[in-house]
Protein 1
Amino acid sequence: STREPVTVIGLGPMGQAMVRVLLGRGHRVTVWNRTAARADAVVAEGAVRAGTPAEALAASELVLLSLTDYQAMYDILGAAEGALGGRVVVNLSSDTPQRTRDAAGWLAERGARLLVGGIMVPAELVGSDQAYVFYSGPKAVFDAHEETLRPIGRPDHRGEDPALAQLYYQAQLDIFLTSLSAYLHATALLRAAGVEATTFLPYATETFDTMSYYLGDAAREIEAGTYPGDLASVTMMGATADHIVGASAAAGIDLDLPRAVRSHYARAIAAGHGKDSWTSLFEVISRRDD
Ligand code: NDP
């Protein structure tokens, strides 16, 4: 085929899903995994097993990494440094922004270029219409390989700073993880009163479905730095946040989450935002004074 060969290192659920998508598109896919048996399934489906990381690097210019963190990259590629020259390493593993920037430098010193990727769906949705992937790193390198990367998930290049894809990924998971905990907390509050989770479900669903309605105005106010408190003030909403702490205490459930929210309101009020909109909480959330 005319499709470029691809190497995939790291065959957890995500790596295996990517291999299958690429095989389905007719790429020659070379794989390597620390635990060799984890490659068996995709090798049976047509992937080529490399005996060593160096062999895996030699097989393709484009090398995808799907690992637990960036340390795993050093553990694997550190033993095959001589084979890194000329490679484009697309690291789709999670880590901190600084470790991501450090990795770009480490690879550059060895003649390789780094594209950072953050996949926004679980393994079963890799390659589906819902899948999208944040990328950052050299735009020209991204452009050269975008067509190969596209079937994994809609590629979205966010900028040249390697950390950007990692930051977008974490920002999205910041919303996701916090929201999941909020849902579980609210469900626990009602269950302590004997209301089943399935009874609460349609109400929780409605709240989640309408949340995005508030974001457009919020983003504009954050950029303008003005937070007009028209219909709902920080003082009013802060009182509600305090009532949720009280209700949680009475129900004997977790207090950490509602206390964190109440603290945002209390600090915004202390900073003079009592009559402003809830969006003024951005002022206390976006900087730490310690
Ligand atoms: P797994 O934890 O299942 O797989 C991790 C891979 O990393 C395995 O191949 C493992 O090898 C390898 N690995 C870990 N540490 C080392 C090491 N020190 N040396 C060599 N190899 C190592 O991960 P997933 O497939 O679930 O996820 C991969 C990445 O994708 C993660 O960064 C995750 O945050 C991200 N992600 C995951 C999603 C998901 O739903 N699973 C969704 C979106 C992103 P071995 O098999 O030998 O243990």
Protein 2
Amino acid sequence: MPQGILIKHLGKHVGEEVAIQGWLYNKRSSGKIQFLIVRDGTGLVQCVLVKGEQPELFEMAKGITQESAITVKGMVREEPRSPGGYEMSVTGLEIISIAQEYPITHKEHGVDFLMDRRHLWIRTPRQNAVLRIRAEIEQAARDFFHQNDFTLVDSPIITPAACEGTTTLFELDYHGEKAYLTQSGQLYNEASAMAVGRMYCFGPTFRAEKSKTRRHLMEFWMIEAEAAFFDHEDNMKLQEELVYFIVKRVLERRRKDLEFLGRDISKLEAVKLPFPRLSYTEAVELLKSKGEQFEWGDDFGAPHETIISQNFDSPVFIHRYPTAIKAFYMKPDPADPRVVLGADLIAPEGYGEIIGGGQRIDDLQLLEQRIEEHKLPREAFEWYLDLRRYGSVPHSGFGLGLERTVAWICKLDHVRETIPFPRMLYRVYP
Ligand code: 4AD
């Protein structure tokens, strides 16, 4: 049989005989009629076999088990009751391989059971929809940066120093020397921004987080941007435009997947520019007005972020955090050096921080002082200090956590379903 067309294109072939290739997702039979629900990763289609019309094919279909790989030939017609809206009357059937008894049935399974079989779980239509939305978000971010003159400059995965604190480093033996898996491409992004002006990178980042929460992964993907001559305000504007672009794109191109997931689409449609901005100090006041016990200087926990986000339909920036709770590279606000020119972007509906970013220290002496205060090994940062020695300029950047963004857009309870093979505190299998 010829190579098939994709199920998502069936609508263009109504009234024609076509072939599709995929896997048996489910089967129903009434004795005289069999319905094979076939999936190919782009959609589902119901294939109908009538015993009286195709006795041989009908017999053959009986032996096809869940997840067997098949080629089906048939006439396409519209059928609103069929998943995907089309149906095929089978005229040909070829078995590529018969699957053994499949562990993931159409009953409910526990999360641990499914996580142990993640390599199979990703085949289910729900997981498929999430993977497609994730891919759309990645593509949207790339398109956004490309359209806005940001050059893609890849940052390294193996690094000699910490970017985001020394407590979450994954250490490597690099031919007898200590090295670490990257926590963020940022320091390299700053170097790249001085080379190309505006840059972005997109890759996996690693944090040996000791926390087992629904927002933390050990390996997650970050979309990071860095721009020379951007101040803190320019930086927030860039971030809100990126996030808005992503939301619009997903609404435009993956609406069916969102509907399939049961996402309340009006919540995404309510996202509007510009995003609200609260200073850290204003956010503390807001929390206190809601009866929360909170001291100026403390960091927000997930419940605080949720309370803050409940006041807004769009993601909200919290800017100018206390210097003491932020990374060594953040530029102090000249108007009040107790706080930094940095911001976190908090997603609506309790999804927490999706972006961290800010303006960087561009002064050599101050940066040297911070490296010392944070007890970071000076030698490993000499190259980074060079950026302040040779043509230092104001510059800013940020990192958007892909998985938390996918969790918010898809409205998933846990980041484990946002990435094909999650790496979590006690899970590195499969
Ligand atoms: O706020 P973070 O730590 O910022 C940075 O790493 C900066 N150096 C980025 C930059 O300015 N270039 O992390 C950025 C985002 C967070 O807002 C969050 O969305 C995500 O990365 N993130 C995680 N996502 C999943 N699991 C984890 N363990 C995460 N840690 C951070």
